[in-house]
Specification:
This protein is elongated. The protein folds into 2 domains: 1-105, Rna Polymerase Sigma Factor, Chain: A, CATH 1.10.1740; 106-187, Arc Repressor Mutant, subunit A (Orthogonal Bundle). It has 8 helices and no strands. Helix 3 packs across helix 4. Residues 98-103 have low confidence and may be disordered. The chain has 187 residues and is an all-alpha fold. The chain starts with a helix and ends with a helix.
């Protein structure tokens, strides 16, 4: 199941008040929001409040039949939280926008564009991974996704030692890079 399908399942679960879906969304997104709020004159309690407000927005959107998520879930949650927090700061007068400092402020739209660009790159990477073939796909997955050690990979894939597994991983990575950039240039 790819990321998009997983996120659609999470949204469906959220719309149906599925505890596991709510916990997953919270676990995968809260720490980034807390960091953002803490780094922008906020407290842990304020971060919790902002995240809860964003979860309500997401819940209402997920229940709407016309809602279609057109970016990663974390991008959506982050941008909602960011807007809510900046609005709260303006209300508390902690955040004063001066005309000359507007150029220093990065609008959320630009951040969303950056995230969407990264999402497109992830799609290209998934396509490159699909084309790379075995054993490279499984080897790279074992190392980067499952975080297995080279010793474990050597044993699992039948390499004589960790150094041989590392060499094969490097060759696979170079092949993946070649496939990715070939798609990237054509895209």
């Amino acid at each position: 199941m790819n990321t998009l399908e997983q996120e659609q399942d999470l949204l469906k679960g959220l719309a149906q008040n599925d505890k596991q879906a709510v916990e997953t969304i919270y676990r995968e997104n809260y720490s980034a929001i807390q960091s953002f709020v803490l780094n922008n004159n906020g407290s842990v309690d304020e971060a919790r409040d902002i995240f809860q407000e964003a979860m309500i927005v997401l819940y209402e959107k997920a229940r709407s039949p016309s809602f279609s998520l057109n970016c990663q879930l974390r991008t959506f949650v982050y941008s909602v939280c960011r807007r809510l927090w900046l609005k709260r700061l303006q209300q508390l007068s902690k955040y004063s926008t001066q005309v000359d400092s507007l150029e220093d402020t990065v609008p959320v739209d630009e951040e969303i564009e950056d995230h969407e660009k990264k999402n497109e790159d992830f799609v290209l990477m998934e396509q490159a991974m699909a084309k790379i073939g075995e054993p490279c796909k499984s080897l790279l997955d074992a190392y980067y996704i499952q975080k297995k050690s080279m010793q474990d990979i050597a044993a699992e894939f039948g390499y004589t030692n960790a150094d041989n597994a590392k060499t094969q991983k490097y060759k696979c990575l170079m092949r993946l890079k070649k496939l990715f950039f070939a798609q990237y240039k054509n895209g």
